[in-house]
Design brief:
The chain is built from one helix and ten strands. By secondary structure, it is mainly beta. Strands 1, 2, 3, 4, 5, 6, 7, 8, 9 and 10 form a ten-stranded antiparallel beta sheet that branches. It is globular and about 50 Å long. It starts with 14 loop residues before the first strand and ends with a strand.
Length: about 190
């Protein structure tokens, strides 16, 4: 019988200073936004354990209205290029710090009807340590959202992700579904 009021430790996360500018349309239906950001290492892990000084990122967003191909279809592509600046090549606990990271995220959004939406979100991240070793990560997320009333919606989904390469570092370990690694979610959202 212990009182846990006010026992939760306050944790600060890293913050970003971001500059965003809409760039307009590249051609009919394809628009893009340019974004650059600088990381402020405020978390204890980044600041003290990893020794992060800052990180510079370029992450534009490309949005395609693909309705001429399939009514209700939108495609969003978000590449992110990150250059990290650390005090040391490895953290205080011996984990290698990443010099560069490239993150690619592709989202397909399809309005099946005025109130039913399908979203497929795919991410691939490749990071390089200062010594040239790589780390590859992937994730797939599929969700179906139903708008029940104005402000009220429900959703159901499936997600999977993990290391993109097998233990031997050569063979791929990307799976769209795996009984042991897949996770499922169900939720309700209310906005007022």
């Amino acid at each position: 019988n212990q009182d846990f009021n006010n026992e939760r430790e306050l944790r600060t996360r890293d913050s970003l200073l971001t500059l965003t500018r809409p760039m307009g349309e590249i051609f009919a239906g394809l628009s893009w936004i340019s974004r650059v950001a600088l990381t402020l290492p405020l978390s204890e892990r980044s600041n003290k354990t990893d020794g992060l000084i800052t990180a510079f990122r370029i992450n534009p967003l490309f949005s395609l209205n693909a309705s001429p191909l399939l009514s209700g279809l939108s495609v969003i592509y978000r590449p992110t290029f990150i250059k990290n600046f650390y005090q040391y090549e490895s953290s205080l606990i011996g984990r290698s710090n990443f010099d560069y990271t490239i993150n690619q995220q592709l989202t397909l959004f399809y309005a099946i009807t005025q109130s039913v939406f399908l979203s497929l979100d795919n991410t691939y991240i490749k990071s390089w340590t200062y010594s040239g070793n790589t780390n590859d990560f992937y994730s797939f997320d599929q969700s179906l959202t139903v708008v029940l009333t104005k402000g009220l919606s429900g959703f159901v989904g499936h997600a999977i992700g993990g290391n993109a390469l097998a233990v031997n570092g050569q063979e791929t370990d990307i799976k769209v579904y795996d009984l042991d690694r897949s996770s499922y979610y169900l939720g309700v959202s209310y906005q007022f």
